Amino acid sequence: MTVTLGEGLLVSLFALISGIDFWLEGFYIFRPMIVCTVTGLMLGDLRLGIIAGGLTELAFAGLTPVGGTQPPNPVMAGIMTVVIAHTTGHSPATAIGLALPFSILMQYIILFYYSAFSVFTKKLDDYAKEANTKKFARLALMPTVVVGVTYAIIAFLCVYGAQAPMRELVNAMPGWLSHGFQIAGGILPAVGFGVLLKSMLKMQYVPYLLIGFTAACFIKFGNLMPVAVIGAALAFIEYSHARRNSVVDKKLKEIQDNANNGGEDDGI
Amino acid sequence: MTVTLGEGLLVSLFALISGIDFWLEGFYIFRPMIVCTVTGLMLGDLRLGIIAGGLTELAFAGLTPVGGTQPPNPVMAGIMTVVIAHTTGHSPATAIGLALPFSILMQYIILFYYSAFSVFTKKLDDYAKEANTKKFARLALMPTVVVGVTYAIIAFLCVYGAQAPMRELVNAMPGWLSHGFQIAGGILPAVGFGVLLKSMLKMQYVPYLLIGFTAACFIKFGNLMPVAVIGAALAFIEYSHARRNSVVDKKLKEIQDNANNGGEDDGI
Amino acid sequence: MTVTLGEGLLVSLFALISGIDFWLEGFYIFRPMIVCTVTGLMLGDLRLGIIAGGLTELAFAGLTPVGGTQPPNPVMAGIMTVVIAHTTGHSPATAIGLALPFSILMQYIILFYYSAFSVFTKKLDDYAKEANTKKFARLALMPTVVVGVTYAIIAFLCVYGAQAPMRELVNAMPGWLSHGFQIAGGILPAVGFGVLLKSMLKMQYVPYLLIGFTAACFIKFGNLMPVAVIGAALAFIEYSHARRNSVVDKKLKEIQDNANNGGEDDGI
Amino acid sequence: MASNSTVTPKRGKLSGKDITKLGVRSIYNQSAMNYERMQSDGWTLAMTPMLKKVYGEDTDGLAAAMSANLQFINTNNYAAPLLMGLLASLEENGEQRSTIDGLRIALFGPLAGIGDAITWFTILPIVAGITASFAKQGSILGPLVFFLVYVALFFARIPIAHLGYSAGTKAIESIRENSAIVSHAASVLGCTVIGGLIASYVQIKVLTKIPVAAGHTISIQTQFFDRIFPNILPLGYTFLLYYLLKKKNTSPVLLILLTFVLAILLSWMGVL
Amino acid sequence: MASNSTVTPKRGKLSGKDITKLGVRSIYNQSAMNYERMQSDGWTLAMTPMLKKVYGEDTDGLAAAMSANLQFINTNNYAAPLLMGLLASLEENGEQRSTIDGLRIALFGPLAGIGDAITWFTILPIVAGITASFAKQGSILGPLVFFLVYVALFFARIPIAHLGYSAGTKAIESIRENSAIVSHAASVLGCTVIGGLIASYVQIKVLTKIPVAAGHTISIQTQFFDRIFPNILPLGYTFLLYYLLKKKNTSPVLLILLTFVLAILLSWMGVL
Amino acid sequence: MASNSTVTPKRGKLSGKDITKLGVRSIYNQSAMNYERMQSDGWTLAMTPMLKKVYGEDTDGLAAAMSANLQFINTNNYAAPLLMGLLASLEENGEQRSTIDGLRIALFGPLAGIGDAITWFTILPIVAGITASFAKQGSILGPLVFFLVYVALFFARIPIAHLGYSAGTKAIESIRENSAIVSHAASVLGCTVIGGLIASYVQIKVLTKIPVAAGHTISIQTQFFDRIFPNILPLGYTFLLYYLLKKKNTSPVLLILLTFVLAILLSWMGVL
Ligand SMILES: OC[C@H]1O[C@H](O)[C@@H](O)[C@@H](O)[C@@H]1O
Ligand SMILES: OC[C@H]1O[C@H](O)[C@@H](O)[C@@H](O)[C@@H]1O
Ligand SMILES: OC[C@H]1O[C@H](O)[C@@H](O)[C@@H](O)[C@@H]1O
C-alpha cells in the first residue's frame, strides 16, 4: 500500500506534536507505544499500529535520555516501523529493524541541536539581567519550535517522499535478510535492558534480577503483573529493612559524635 | 424435607453444648466447621453438613470475638445453614445467606447478656470478701448456665418451630434472589478477611499479603498448605532478623544509658 | 551377561585410578556419576552406566568424608552397581542396593588404613629432621600406592571373581525382594541428605529448606536449576544483610571498647 | 523488689497436680463474661482452688487475693493459663499483694496481643483455610483435623500453665521483650495466609458479556479482569471492606448486609 | 541561617493558584535544552511568573533571581516541580539569594537520581512491559492504559509542586536522607521487573538441528538450551551486552548495529 | 608482630612459577592421611620444594620448617592451597618460625569450615542434583558437565594458591571476619538446594489401597498423602533420619541398613 499525500501530512503533523512532547518529556506520547498506535490509526490500520506499538515499545524499553544523553529516536522509530510494515507488507518485527536508520538519523539531529542551542544562552543572560520577561520567554521557546518543525519536515520526507525507493529496496530483500531483520527485532529489547541494567544493577540487586527472571520463566500468565507484584513486595520488604538500618546508623553516628565532642570538651 | 421433633431436640441439645463452648472458648466445636458437620449428622445428611461446614467456616473466618467484641453468631449460623439447605433443598452457599438473620439475632442476645451479667459482680465481690468459695463458684457459673439454656431454646424454636413459614418463604423466592444469596455466600468471606486485616495489616505486612495472594493464584494445589509453608518460611526469616535487631537495639540503649550515666556522674 | 577377563582387568585399572583420586580428592572422578559412566563404557553399555551414575550419585549425595570421616565407598558402589545391573539384568535402582555390601567393605578397608598409616609418621619425622626431602617424598607417597593397589585387587575380585555366585544369588531372589532393593534405592538419597543436614541445618536455615522443597514441588522442570537460582538469590540477599550486620557489630564493638578505654583512662 | 515483709504468714506449697488443675480450670475464664469487668469473675473462679491451697487457714489472705483478682481483666484464653501459672508461683512464694497485682495488670495486655496474634489471627485462618478445602469436597478429613487441632490446643493449657509456673518472675522480662518479635513473625505468617485465603475463597465472577458484533461477545470476566490479574475482584473488594472497617470504622455487620444487598442487586441485574 | 538582612525589601505573597501554575509550567523545563547549561533556560522560563509575583516592583531583585536560575541545572522532569515549589517558598519568605541558590545546586543532583530511579527505571519498564503484552495481541487496552498512566503523571506535577512548596526547608533534610532508601527500594523493584522483561520479551531461538542418525535429529534449542534453563540465551545475551556497556563502555548504538549484523548473519547461516 | 629478629639468615625469593607448582602440589595433601596427624605428612610433601627454595643452603632452617609442618593439620582440600600460598609468603619474608606456625594452626580450622560449606555442602549437591537429572535420562551431558566442573575446580587450586600468596598477612583478618558471613550465605544456598533435592530425588510411594465398597478403593498415596502436600513422605523420612543422626547420633551406615530392611519389609507386605 502507498501512503497518500493527506496521510503523509497527517503523520507529519503528529510528528511535530509528539516530537515536541519528546523534547519536553511531557505526556509520553512520544513513546513508540503511542506513536505507532496513532500512526496506524492515521494510515487506516489501527491493529497494525497497536501491535507494532507493543513490539517497538519493548525494543526501546531501556533507550532513554537519562542524564541528558540522547538515544535512538523513539518518535521516528515508531512512525517508520508502522509505515514500513504498512507499505511493504512485512511483519512489524521485521519493520523495527528497517526503521532503525531513520531513528538514528533523528538522534543525531537532536544531538546537533543540543550543541547548537548553546548560542541562545548569551542573549538569554542579557534579557535576564534586564528582567525582560517577555523577550526571555519568546527566545527560550524558540528551540522548541525549531525542533517541532524539524520533526514535521523529516517525518514528511521519510514517510511520503522516500516511500518509492524504500519499497523497492525492501522488495528486493532476499528471504534470509528480512528474516534476519525480524529476528533482530526480537533480540533488540536486550540492548535496552542492558542499558537499564548499566545504571541500575549493582551487585546487591543481582538476586532480584534472578528472581524476576525465574518468576517470569515459570509463572504462566499473559502479562508481567505477577512479576511486578512480587518485585513490589520484595522492594517493600527491603524498604522496611533500609529504614530500620538508617535509624541504627543515625543512632550510631550520634553516639560517636557525642563521644568525640565529649573527648574534645575534656581536652579543652 | 422436614425436621422431626426428635431431630429438633437433638440439635437443640447440641446447640446448648456448642453454645457453652463458644461462651468459654473451649474446644472450638462452636466453629461452623464442627457445628455444620454435627448438625448434618443429626439430620441424617453428614455429607451436606461437611460441605456446609467448609463453606460457612470460611464465611466466618475473620469474624471473631477478639478484644471482647461479639461477632455474628457462628453456632446459629452453622446450625441454620444446614437446616435451611436440608429442608428447602437449596445449596449450602445459598443457605449461608438465609441463615444470617438467625446468626445476628443470637449475636444481639449475647451482647445483651454481656451487659446484663454485670449485675452479678456486686454479689461476687461480697462472696470474695467473705472468702466464700462455694457460693462464689455457684454464682460465677450461673451466666454459663443461662447462656446454654438460651442457646437450646433459641435453636429449638428456629430449627423445629419456624420451619413451616421458613420453607414457604424460601420456596416463594424468585431465581435471582436465591442466586443472589448464593453469590453473597461466596463473597462473604471477604468481610471476615477484612476484619482480620483491620487488626493485623500494618503497612509493613502488605508485601506478605501480596506474596500470599500471588502464590495462591499461581500455585495449583487443592489446599493452602503451600502458601502456609511459604508464609512460615518468611515469618521465620523475619523472626531471625527481628531477634538480631533487638540485640542491636539493646546494645545501643545500653551504650546510651552508660553515656548518660557517665555524663551525670561527671557532673555530680 | 558375563564380565570377560579383559573387561575385569580394565575395570580394575580404573578402580586403581579413581581409588587414588578419592584418596587424594583430586578430580572427583571417584564420584559415582563418573565411576558408573566409565564402568558402563568399559562393559560396553554406556547408557546403563550413565543412568546408574545419575541414580547412584544421588544415593551418595551426602555421604562425604568431611572432617576426616569415611563414608560408604563411592568407587566400589559405582562399579558394582553397574556390574550387577549389567550381569543380572536388574534395574540400576535395584542394583544400588545389591552393591552396598561391596561399598561398605571398602569403607572399612580405608578406615583400617587410616589407622595403619600412622606407623609411617615416626620415620617421616626423622627424615624431616634430616631435611632429607627425597626419602621423605618416597615414604609420604607410599600410602597412596598401597591404597591404589588395594582398590585394583578388591575391584578385580568383586567384578570378575565373584560374578558367578553373585549371579546365582541374585537370580534366586523372589520378586518382592528385588522390588524391595529397588525401592530402597529410591529412598537411599534421604540418608545422604540427612547427613548433609546434620552439619548444615541450624534453626535459622529451616525456612530455606522449606522454600527449596516447596519450589521443587511446584516448579515443573527437568532439573534443579530453578531451585538453585532461587537459592542463590536468597543466599546473596542474606549475604548483603550479614555484611551490613557485621559492619554495625564492628562499630558497636569499637564504641564499647572506646567507652571502656575512656573509662579506664579516666580512672588512671 | 522481692518480698521483704516478714509479717506475711508462711504460705502453702503447690504440687504439680495443682498447676495441672489450674491449667484445666482456666477454661472458666469467661464463665461470667460481662462488660463491667470482662473476664475477672471467671478468672477468679479458675484461680480459687489454687489460692485456697496457698492461703490455707489464712482466710483474710484468701479474701484479699480473691478480691484483688476480681479487678478488670481481659486476655487471650490460651495466654490466661500462662499468666495464672506465673501468678501461682508468686502467690506461693509469698510475694506482696501489690507486686502480684501489678504484674497481673502489666501483663494481661501484652499477652492478649501476642495470644490473639497467634491463635485468632494465625492458627485459626490457617487451620480453617486448609481444612475447609477438604470439607468443601465433602471429605470428613476437614472437620476431623479441625477438631483434633483444637482438642490438642485445649490440652495445651496444661503445659502452658506449667510453663508460666516454672518460668516465674524470670519470664516477665522475656515476655515483654519477645512479645513484639513473636507478634511480628505471627503477623507475617498470618498476612501471607490471608492473602492466600482471599485468592482461594472469596468468589466474585462477573457474568456480563458485551456484544461486539452479531453472535460475538466479549466476556468482562475472562477477557478483561482475568487478563489483568487472577482474582483481582476478590482482592479489590476485600481491600474496599478493609478500608471501610479501618478508616470509616464501619461495623462488620453493616458490611455483611451491604454485601448481601449488593449481591442480590447485581444478581437481579445479571451482572454477578 | 534564616534571613536576617533587614535591607531586603518586603516580598509578594504566593497563592495556591500560583503554585499550581508553577507545577504546570514545569513542562517548560527542557524547552531550550543545550549542552552548555542543560535545562537552565527552560527552568528559568518556568519560574519567571512566580518570581515576577514575588519581586513585584523590585526589578533588580527579579533580574538577580532570573540570572541566578540561569546557572547549570539538570534534574529529573518529575522532580523539577518539587524543587521549584520548594524554592518558591524560600523566595517568598525572603531568604537570601545565596541560601536559595545553594539549595538549588545542592538538591538537583539527588533529585535527579531518585527521580530517574522511579520514573525512567521503574515506572516506564513496568508500564511498558505490562501494556506491551496487551498491545502485542492487538488490544487497544495497551496504548490506552499507557496513555492514561502518563497523563496522570503529567498532572501529578501539580501536587508535586504543592508538596515542595508546603514542605519548604523542612523537606531538605528528609530528601537527602530518604533519597538513598527510596532509590534502593525502586532498584529492587526495577531489577525484578527487568529480569521478568528479559525472560518475556527478548527472543532468541536456535533453529539448528544436529542429525544423529538417518531421519533422526537433535534440536539444539528444545533438547539442549531449553533443558538447562528456559530463556537462557536471552539472559546470556543481555548480560553480554551489559558487560560491554558497563566494562567496555561500548555505545548502545554500536550494540544495536552489532545485534543486527549478528541476527542477519545467523539468519543467513540458518542458525536463528 | 613483624619479624624483628635480625639473626634470621636471608631467605630465597619465590617466583610465580613456584607458587603455581605449590598450587598443583597441594594435591598431595592427603597422600598419607592417617588418624594420628591427618593430612600433615602429605601437607609437608606438598610444601617441600617451596621450602627448599626458600631456605636454600640453610638445611637447619629447612629441617625446622619441615618438622613444624608435620604437626597435626586437617583442612579442606580446596582451601589448602590458599593457606599454603599464604604461608609461602611468610616463609619468604623471613617471619619467625613461631609466627608462621601460629598462623597455620589458627587458620586451618576456619578454612576447613568455610571450604567444606562451599565445596562439599553447596557445590557438590548442586552439581550432583542438576547433572543427575540429565544422567537419569541417559544423557551424556550429565557426567560430562560433572567432570568439567571438577577439572575446573582442580585447576582453581593454582589461582587459589596465588591468591593466598599475594594476600599475605593482610588476608588473615579478612578470612577470620568473612568466614562466618560466607558460610552463612553458603548454608542458605545449600539448604535451599537440599530442600529441592529431597522433593526431587527421594522417592516413597505407598501402594496400599483401602477398599471402601465393592470394586471401589481409596489410594492412600494419591487420595491422602498427595492431597496434603506433594512429597510429604520423602520430607518426613528425611527429617526422621536427620533427627536420628543429630539427636541420637546414629551412624549413617546403620541408617542405610535400616532403610534397606524397611524397604524390603514393606515391599514384602505390599505397602511400598
Ligand atoms: O538524569 C536527569 C535528567 O536528565 C535529562 O535532563 C533528561 O533526560 C531527564 O529525563 C532526566 O531525568
Ligand atoms: O482480645 C483478648 C480476648 O478478648 C476476649 O476476651 C476474647 O474474645 C478472647 O478470645 C480474646 O483473646
Ligand atoms: O573437614 C575438613 C576436611 O576433612 C578431611 O580432611 C577431608 O574429608 C576433607 O575433604 C575435608 O574438607
TrEMBL record, chains A, B, C:
Cellular compartments per GO CC: plasma membrane
Keyword Membrane: yes
Any one Gene Ontology BP term: phosphoenolpyruvate-dependent sugar phosphotransferase system
PROSITE patterns: PTS_EIIC_TYPE_4
Principal cellular location given in the protein's record: membrane
InterPro entries: GatZ_KbaZ_carbometab, PTS_IIC_man
Membrane topology: Multi-pass membrane protein
A Pfam cross-reference name: EII-Sor
Source domain of life: Bacteria
Stretches that traverse the bilayer: 98-120, 141-164, 176-197, 209-237
Membrane listed as a keyword: yes
Subcellular location: Cell membrane
Entry keyword set: Cell membrane, Membrane, Phosphotransferase system, Sugar transport, Transmembrane, Transmembrane helix, Transport
Protein name per Swiss-Prot or TrEMBL: N-acetylgalactosamine PTS, EIIC
Organism field: Pediococcus cellicola
High-level lineage: Bacteria, Bacillati, Bacillota, Bacilli, Lactobacillales
Automatic annotation (TrEMBL), chains D, E, F:
Superkingdom of this protein's organism: Bacteria
Residue spans crossing the bilayer: 105-128, 140-160, 181-204, 224-245, 252-271
InterPro entries per the UniProt record, alphabetical: GatZ_KbaZ_carbometab (IPR050303), PTS_IID_man (IPR004704)
Signal sequence, start to end: none
Membrane topology of the entry: Multi-pass membrane protein
Gene Ontology BP terms: phosphoenolpyruvate-dependent sugar phosphotransferase system
Keyword Translocase attached: no
This protein's record includes keyword Transmembrane: yes
Gene Ontology terms: cellular component: plasma membrane
Location of the protein in the cell: Cell membrane
Swiss-Prot/TrEMBL keywords: Cell membrane, Membrane, Phosphotransferase system, Sugar transport, Transmembrane, Transmembrane helix, Transport
Primary location: membrane
Coiled coil: none
Pfam families the UniProt entry points to: EIID-AGA
Protein name: PTS system N-acetylgalactosamine-specific transporter subunit IID
